[in-house]
Amino acid sequence: MAPQFHSESFEAVVLPHLDAAYNLARWLMRGREEAQDVVQEAMVRALTYFPSFRGDNARGWLLQIVRNAAYASMKLNRGLVAVPIESQAGEDLALTDPGDNPEMALTKTQDLKLVHRLLAGLPVELREVLLLREMEEMSYKEIARVTEAPIGTVMSRLWRARRLLATAIESGERAA
Amino acid sequence: MSEMEDCKRALLTQADFDGELDAAQAADLVLHRETCAQCRAAYERLAMVRAAIRDDDLYQRAPDSLRSALTARAAASSGGSEPHALAPARARWWPTANFGMGAAVAAGFALLVTLSGNSDLADRVVDDHVRALQPGHLWDVESTDRHTVKPWFDGKIDFAPPVKDLANHDFPLKGGRLDYLNGRQVAAMVYERGHHPIDLMVWPAAGAANAAPTVTMRNGFAAIHWTQDGMTLWAVSDLERAQLAEFVDLWRAAP
After folding, report:
1. Beta B184-193 vs B173-181: how paired, if at all?
2. Rounded to a whole number, what is the distance in Å from the CA of A97 to chain B's nearest CA?
C-alpha cells in the first residue's frame, strides 16, 4: 500500500534518520540491547503512523517517537526515569585511528571517556536537550517539540546541562 | 558562568551562541562582550563544552544488524502485505504520546511482561485490533452511552459483556462490535484516549480465577490481558503502555 499523503517511501523519508534515532536511544537507555529494543519499537510505531505523517521534519517526528518509547521502557522496567549509564561509559567508543601520534591518542581517549561519563551522568532531562542541541544541532523550537517542553524550559535545561558539564570537565582536567 | 546563572543575559548569551538571535540582538551582545569579561568567559565555556561533545566518536551509530533488520521490515511493509496504517480520519501527524509521568506509577498493579503461554493469543488479539483500525471496521454500534452499547450485544452473543463508563477519566466509550477470536464470538468495546482507539475484547473465562494483568508488546501495539469476574479480557492499543495500563487499572476498579 503506497502511503496516502507522502509521495516518498518510508525508506526514503524516515530510515535516513536511523542513526539519530539510535544515538538518542543509546544515550537515554542503560545498555545497547535496551537501545536497540527501543529503536525497533519506535520504528514499528513510525511505520504505523507514517501514512499520516505530513510534516517536513521527519527527524524530529521520529526522535519524538523514539523518546516516548525510551521513557515508556524506562518506566516499565524500573519505575524510575534517570538512570546514569556510568557503568558502561566508554564501551561504545569507536575510537579513531591514533595514527602516528600515540601520546595524543591516549589523551584523546581519556578526554572522550571523561566526557562520555559526564554526559551519561547528567539527569536525563538535561542530557536529552544537550545531545539534541549539540549532536543533532536542532533549534530550540525543534527540541521543544521533541521533548514536549516549552522553549523557555529548553533554554534553562540547556544552560544547566552545559554549566554542569563545563564545571565537571574543568575539574576533571585539573584532577588529571 | 556560575556568577550569572540566574541572569537573563546568560540565556541571551547562550541563545546568541546557538544562533537563535536575530542580527540586531546578536550585534548588541557582541558589543557587550567586548566590555564584559564575565559574558566573554561564559561564551568561551559554551564553546568548550560544544567542542567536547561534538566529537564524532561520541555519536552512537546504529549497528548494521539493526539497520538491515529495519530496512527489511520497512520494505516488507511498503510492499503492501501489512495494511496496518491508521485510517486518515483518526490520523495525527505528530503523535503526541503525552503519557503522564505519574500516571503509570499510579496504576496500582505490577506489569509483568509475558514470556510465553498467551503469546499466540496476543498475536491474534493485536491482529484483530489492527483489522478493526481499517476504515469503517472499528465499531458495529457507535455510541458513547453504555446503556446503548450493552443492550446492543443482547441476542447477538451468548454472554452479557460488562460495559463500563470511563468518560470521567478521559477514556470515553466510542462503541462496540462483534468479533470472532480464539474459536468463539467475543465482544469488543471501543474506548478512546486522545485520538488513539482502545479495543477491549471480552469473553467468558470458563470458571477461571481472577488473574492480574500482564502486558505484551506486538508490532508496536501494547496488549494487556487479565481475568476478572469470570471474564477473559484483552485491552489493546497503540497508546503508550503506561497509558493503556492506566486504562486497565481504571476499568478494573470501575463499577
Report:
1. antiparallel
2. 11
A65 CB neighbours in chain B (<8 A) are 95, 97
Fold of B103-253: Protein Transport Mog1p; Chain A (3.40.1000)
Is residue B180 very low, low, confident or very high in pLDDT (cuts 50, 70, 90)?
A: confident
Is ipTM over 0.90? no
> B residues 58-117 near A, CB within 8 Å?
58-63, 66-67, 69-71, 73-75, 77-78, 80, 83-86, 88, 91-99, 101, 104-105, 111, 113
Per-residue pLDDT of B60-102, as tens digits, reads 999 988 998 888 888 877 654 333 333 232 233 333 333 333 3
Which residue has better confidence, A114 or B136? Answer: A114
Write down all domains in chain A, each with its CATH number in brackets. 1-83 (1.10.1740.10), 97-176 (1.10.10.10)
Burial class (CB in 10 A: 0-12, 13-18, 19+), B92: middle
Question: Which pLDDT score is estimated for B127?
Answer: 79
Q: How far apart are CA B246 and CA B169, in angstroms?
A: 10
Nearest Cβ partner for A44 among B83, B86, B220: B220
With contacts defined as CB-CB under 8 Å, which chain B residues touch A54?
A: 93
Amino acid identity at A118: L
Alpha-carbon Rg for chain B, nearest whole angstrom, is 26
pLDDT band at A58 (very low <50, low <70, confident <90, very high): very high
Report the distance separating Cα A32 and Cα A34, nearest Å. Answer: 5
A165 at interface of B, judged by CB pairs closer than 8 A = yes
Number of CB pairs, chain A paired with chain B, less than 8 A apart? 187
Query: Cα–Cα distance between A76 and B126 in angstroms, integer?
Result: 20
What are the boundaries of each domain within chain B? 2-58, 103-253
